[in-house]
Structure of Threonine dehydrogenase:
Amino acid sequence: MTETMRAAVLSAPGTMELVETVRPEPGSGEVRVRLEGCGVCASNVEPFEGQPWSTFPGDAGGLGHEGWGVVDAVGAGVTSVAVGDRVATLAGRSFAEYDVAAEDAVVVLPAALDGQPFPGEPLGCAMNIFRRSDIRAGQWVAIVGIGFLGAVLTRLATEAGARVIAISRRQSSLDLAKAFGAAETVAMDDHWRIIEAVKAITGEALCERVIEAVGKQWPLDLAGELVGYGGRLVIAGYHQDGPRQVSMQMWNWKGIDVANAHERDPAVALRGLREAVDAVTTGRLDPAPLYTHQYALDDVAEAIEATRDKPDGFVKALITY
């Protein structure tokens, strides 16, 4: 008999249904993972609410791309991963009890991480963004938007010897940034007041590096203003709701570099995931305080809504099975 599994399906805008579906089988060069959990990403929000190009129903387990669990079957030719290995994956249908990934899209988790949740994709994404940022000791680094990604980048930049100015709307986010090493915090309320505050902190020089980690027009406008002459603007926010306008005159005048820091090369994504495993294992990074809300698979819709609405103290939601 064909084995089945439970999976969440986006059946209509704002509606996730839990279905019983066929459990996937690994093909050649693939592994199947019995998932322990999956993180919820801010990029889930707009597809969940419905986009003009969306079609319904979505794939079983679709939207879930931050999974981790234990390998329970391998396909032909797999040599680097074995049944029983605990792994983080870069697969894309992990709002389900099982997912299948290519052998080179999983990283084995060391025993030191046993029992700990590990949404590897966003952690790897943060490592790749940090590398693209080229942050150096002594620099002023503004991070616009302190959620999960902004907090991780705050820690990495601080650990590299930079001085971080954290800019975010909620006081709880600013407090989080302080806990993760930010030298200064600025409330994200008034555009021109923020610019003047950053000028005061930096002696009018503004920042050598600015990371925009929101994915909206105003934070992008603000981030460009905060970059000093010859600095670098790093766009880490996921801009998915349409075209953007930028002040090319201002970018040209200041001679800034602009890095779109989302990596789509699978080899680069895998490199980031490996670096994330090492950073957490060695204690360079402790993401545990960021996993603030946990939900069952039945409650994926509620978890995505919380990711959108950000109740008090919210940083990141995990779906655990």
